[in-house]
Amino acid sequence: MKHHVALFALLGSVPATLGLWPIPRSLETGTSALKLAANFNIELDVPNPPADLSAAVSRSANYIKTDNLERLVVDRGASNSTAVAHAPQLKSLVLSLESGSPVRSIMEEATLELGTRREEYKLDVPASGASATLTANSTLGLLRGLSTFEQLWYDLSGETYTIQAPISVVDTPAYPFRGFMLDTARNYFAVSDIKRTLDAMSWVKMSQLHWHVVDSQSFPIQITGFMDLAEKGAYSSSMIYTPEDVQDIVQYAGERGIDVMVEIDMPGHTAIISEAHPDFVACAEASPWATFASGEPQCLMKPLISRLDTLWPLEPPAGQLRFASAAVQNFTVGLLNEVAKMFPSNIVSTGGDELNTECYTEDAETQAILQETGQDLEQALSGFIQAAHGTLKAQGKTPAVWEEMVLDHNVTLSNDTVVLVWISSMDAAAVAAKNFRIVHAPSDYFYLDCGAGEWIGSDPEANSWCDPFKTWQKSYTFDPLANLTEAQTSLVLGGEQLLWTEQSSPANLDPIVWPRAASSAEVFWTGATLPGGKPRNGTEALPRLHDVAFRMAQRGIRAIPLQPLWCALRPGKCNLNS
Amino acid sequence: MKHHVALFALLGSVPATLGLWPIPRSLETGTSALKLAANFNIELDVPNPPADLSAAVSRSANYIKTDNLERLVVDRGASNSTAVAHAPQLKSLVLSLESGSPVRSIMEEATLELGTRREEYKLDVPASGASATLTANSTLGLLRGLSTFEQLWYDLSGETYTIQAPISVVDTPAYPFRGFMLDTARNYFAVSDIKRTLDAMSWVKMSQLHWHVVDSQSFPIQITGFMDLAEKGAYSSSMIYTPEDVQDIVQYAGERGIDVMVEIDMPGHTAIISEAHPDFVACAEASPWATFASGEPQCLMKPLISRLDTLWPLEPPAGQLRFASAAVQNFTVGLLNEVAKMFPSNIVSTGGDELNTECYTEDAETQAILQETGQDLEQALSGFIQAAHGTLKAQGKTPAVWEEMVLDHNVTLSNDTVVLVWISSMDAAAVAAKNFRIVHAPSDYFYLDCGAGEWIGSDPEANSWCDPFKTWQKSYTFDPLANLTEAQTSLVLGGEQLLWTEQSSPANLDPIVWPRAASSAEVFWTGATLPGGKPRNGTEALPRLHDVAFRMAQRGIRAIPLQPLWCALRPGKCNLNS
């Protein structure tokens, strides 16, 4: 921001906070008031615009009309009234594509392979009232620019204004994968909850929903040819995602610039499949899941604690796919083949976390197969994963896996496999050393469920395995390139914040996620430095994140306050070293 | 429960969980199915019933019709269908008062002095279909019995049934004060949010709302003759409780068996009063609140850490009433006189926590007064508190204070003063040693805000001062009589769970409170032992608390799930030592 000292002298106001989130890579602002004309209009100067671009323009125009967000200062902007009264009026924002740009729909662009999506845009808002312009070389870039434009405006007695014109933005994300993971298996979320979340994600330019749709506890997705999985494994007949629901969700996401990476976690985290196919699952009923914890290891979920200093709870129910079995491989290949067809995304995850190999040591059926085929367990696992990934690749998909598939098993994976690092942020370097592409999903920074207590009975003194709560301030300090060599930096695709839902449902979805998850949205869009070159830091970010929370609230998201309103209205006054 | 082995053999079902919360002091259940007749009716056999009793009956009848809660078992009760089809039909519940009982309104009874309210009741539901009966010696007792009756019923394809008839309950609370504290000053809550909370409180027989209505950050309550406090100290003109709002809230609470203890915290936590009366407040602008923390103690909030092993954050803004000043005393007495008139409760709290005495050492005005009057600071404080309490007592009120007024200052308090113990559960014994009555509000068990991160900028590694999160399991283990002598047990009035709202708003009110706060509701209603004499324990309680959460959800409270639904439907299967 330039000249802001002059501005504040002029307006007699406290320092203005431009509520942009994520903050653009390059940003220049002025000191003039500018307001929207009563007939303000967003013009789409794109011949035959895709329907989802026209819809995005309509949404944006609507947000600008209905946000009615007052400035977060004590007088809520009243001191700007004279300046606003005399301010030039902005009559239009004109959107155009640079010549030669392909005119794809937003959804087509957003579901391209990671690294090939174009999201950059240029936004100019003159102080004079002359038309503002938004240009990009893709419809997706125009969508990102609209999200920025929406965040420029405040309400004062019905006038929609800024006091920082002219505004000039040249923007492009630092990383393509800016994600949020939702687990819909521990507890169920309605389609409307997912859509509401997608809306909020798009406002902060997030690009990726990681949909952890199934797990040991329930199988809520209907898959053609495999309908018995949901019929017997969903929590109820009303807690199911039909193929139409899936189509609805991926379309809704795509139109908002969000790609949906579905995860069918395997071969662990699959106990619920035993409801439809008891023969496919080892250890499902063999013994109570918790016996292992009481000193008699049998056939149970075994957490991979080797690289963690802390124990975390085993999780019921037990049961894992008998991956060595040809029947199970056929089933899995067929299932993934159908799943791949349901999702337009280029990426599909086969999960692969927390595999308890002891289960198979005691599983007579698996041991018989291994003996018959002359394979050891890891060879069988590698064959299973290769078959699974083979069917994905045959459909043009890139497979994604949790880090254990790379770090803890001898599985042959193709070089383009995307690896999600979750156990610890420290593990990224080991994945990079194996030359795989990385999505950061570290539990020590990005797990939104940590710190809410232990849900497993029955120890009253127990806390969550990943205590403490991961604050937005902590997430915001994440360095995507930590411990990587210069040569390895190109392996980083981005990262995501994650909500495991053992203790979440639609009841607390919004408050546990927002505005916290916006922190990584900025980490992975803006990168290491603020416009102007200073490093990102939480003290600078806080007033802007307040803005995000309050704007989200105006749009129907139950985002929580980060501080007492007293602090939100007095930027800097509640910092420890202010 | 008796004969349940026979029952399960008969119905071919898993063990039934009677979803009563708090569990009655005495309870006998049978093994028969019983369903409500289509024309089931609650008859009020009370001549000239008070309006709030009739309203309670209507609410109860409505809940029974609309709860539609299925049993929390895998088949959701389908295995009970034959038994339910052939079950006798219950046509009526008859409510009556024991002869000679005074016919007060529920509200009148609920706002009587603590220890004199009658809440006991007797409920009988025969297995035959003959009328169920609910008797009590007060309208408040009838209300408590209705809450129990509502919890007996489940839905199966439109039938409302139990499989545990006959049911016989004789019940009375262990402690009269079963509370919840809401802070409406750090962030604002609408009247509708408070009413929704009162509803949920009444369902688990909580008796006391502790309304921490004002604090340093805002003064949202309009008080006749002192309108400038809210006018200048509320966050906005729409974030105000008018006298009509207060009347609405206390009436709504009273009708639901809940007394409202308002707290006007003083002389600390009063910075916002400086907006209307700058002369009344010391240290308000003298220095940034956080200077103290950086090693230059001036005139700031000083936490009382002497009895804690941990530091907790100072909180902005600074500023405390100049209690030594006659003008401030007059103001305070006048204010409390009006506040006392607004609340029908017998108890009013004057707070008194976290007073920073250093502030006054550096306050020239206070020092001048002390010199003039020949008092020391503690003498002046005692005079101030006595004046404040004197005006309350003149209106028939019992004063309540935070523990520091007893443990850290030389304040003369009347023997009937109620003392809230918050810093640590260990402090109860010291308060009891001074022979004051106790309300347990310990941060180490009952603070609902702990573990959600530090809201003060700007240390990204900081966590909440009272980490970790206080789980329901932890709260549930609270022993109200720990470290007290036999003779001191009569000093315990009960306890409360508390929500300080630095990081809360209506957005997360329900999920941060429910069902967690129900844990203390049972601790203080049921006491140390389950019906039958076994000690209360979380493993037994969990399935019943699931029931509370799901029934609350059916009634519009955004209560969170305590576990994956897989666990909720399989009682015991997710315990570590099951």
In CATH, the architecture of the largest domain in chain A is Alpha-Beta Barrel
Query: What quaternary form is this?
Result: homodimer
Q: What does the main sheet of chain A amount to? A: 8 strands, parallel, barrel
CATH class of the largest domain in chain A: Alpha Beta
Measured by DSSP, the beta-strand proportion of chain A falls in 15-25%
Mean of pLDDT of chain A: 92
Q: State the CATH topology of the largest domain in chain A.
A: TIM Barrel
Measured by residues with Cβ under 8 Å of the partner chain's Cβ, the largest interface is: A-B, 75 and 76 residues
What's the structural domain tally of chain A?
A: 2
Q: Spans of chain A of 5+ residues with little confidence (pLDDT < 50)?
A: 1-15, 290-313
Q: Span from first to last CA of chain A?
A: 21 Å
Binned, the helix content of chain A reads: 25-40%
Q: Judging from the principal axes of the Cα atoms, what is the shape of chain A?
A: elongated
Number of strands of chain A: 16
Structural Rg of chain A:
25 Å
Signal peptide (chains A, B): 1-19
GO molecular function (chains A, B): beta-N-acetylhexosaminidase activity
EC number (chains A, B): 3.2.1.52
Active site (chains A, B): 354
